TrEMBL record:
One of its GO terms (molecular function) is RNA binding. It comes from Myotis myotis. GO terms for cellular component: mitochondrial matrix; ribonucleoprotein granule. This is FAST kinase domain-containing protein 4. Residues 196-254 form the RAP domain.
Length: 266
């Protein structure tokens, strides 16, 4: 069983799909059906998180890991290992809510979804700093964007904006934000408004020497889309080609325009 767990985690890291995928995962589910509950609780979370990345989690497996008897032990664990497991539980919870409409519970309690005070920021990367500065210059007002947005899904958005039908920025604080924990705002955005999430992708977010995101970040992007956002991807290899402030601003404007146009074309 430990070998199977290691294989699943390796596949999830790279977002790798094996040949004869259906037969492989049928075997995985058969093994897990009888042995998942016997695994160490943290390993149960790891395995199910891997299945979520690979879009192979079943409702019965989600229920097994999201039941209070298992997850409660991790909610107050401040150790690095405990925090990593809790992060994965948030991703599993988000998978159940966003990708399994038939899922009937259980889910994590609302208190577990609150990111609490922000953790000490890792060193800000040049891409992160330049993206925020360029976007702030476009917004024209502090109330028209959020930055480093911790969501109840366990992911942090680099930035968030709300556009009206004419492509103008709306003041975010006026409108409901169901992705925050607790949800904020009291006014529904106009039906034609579009909520955009900016996600930067650093060199380390990609599989070696490729433009394929690692599994963790594929899952993040899927969840953000499923939560109702249009995604503005900002990969390092595109940003590095931009030399001037004007080019960076034009790049972000074009990215936003394309995201909205693709949505309207559906």
């Amino acid at each position: 069983m430990s070998d199977l767990c290691n294989v699943l985690l390796a596949f999830a890291r790279l977002n790798f799909r094996p040949e004869q995928e259906e037969a492989f995962f049928n075997l995985v589910h058969e093994k897990l059906g009888s042995q998942l509950a016997d695994l160490d609780p943290a390993l149960q979370v790891d395995v199910l998180w891997a299945l979520c990345v690979l879009q192979q989690a079943r409702a019965s497996e989600l229920q097994a890991v999201l039941r209070p008897e298992l997850h409660t032990q991790f909610l107050g664990d401040r150790s690095p290992r405990g925090q990593s497991t809790l992060q994965k539980l948030l991703h599993i919870n988000a998978t159940a809510r966003l990708e399994h409409p038939e899922y009937a519970g259980p889910l994590l309690p609302a208190t577990a979804l609150d990111p609490g005070p922000p953790a000490p920021e890792r060193k800000v990367t040049p891409l992160q700093k330049e993206l925020q500065e360029t976007l702030k210059g476009l917004l024209g007002g502090a109330d028209r964007g959020r930055f480093s947005v911790a969501t109840q899904y366990g992911w942090v958005l680099d930035a968030e904006v709300l556009l009206d039908a004419e492509g103008q920025f709306l003041p975010l604080r006026d409108f409901v934000a169901p992705h925050l924990s607790p949800p904020s705002g009291g006014q529904l955005p106009p039906p034609t408004a579009k909520r955009l999430a900016f996600l930067r992708w650093e060199f380390s977010n990609f599989a070696s020497r490729s433009k394929d995101l690692l599994g963790r970040f594929v899952l993040a992007r899927r969840h953000v889309l499923a939560a109702g956002f249009l995604v503005v991807d900002v990969p390092y290899y595109e940003w590095l080609e931009l030399r001037s402030e004007w080019q960076k601003a034009a790049y972000l404007k074009d990215k936003m325009r394309k995201s909205v146009a693709e949505e309207l074309a559906k």
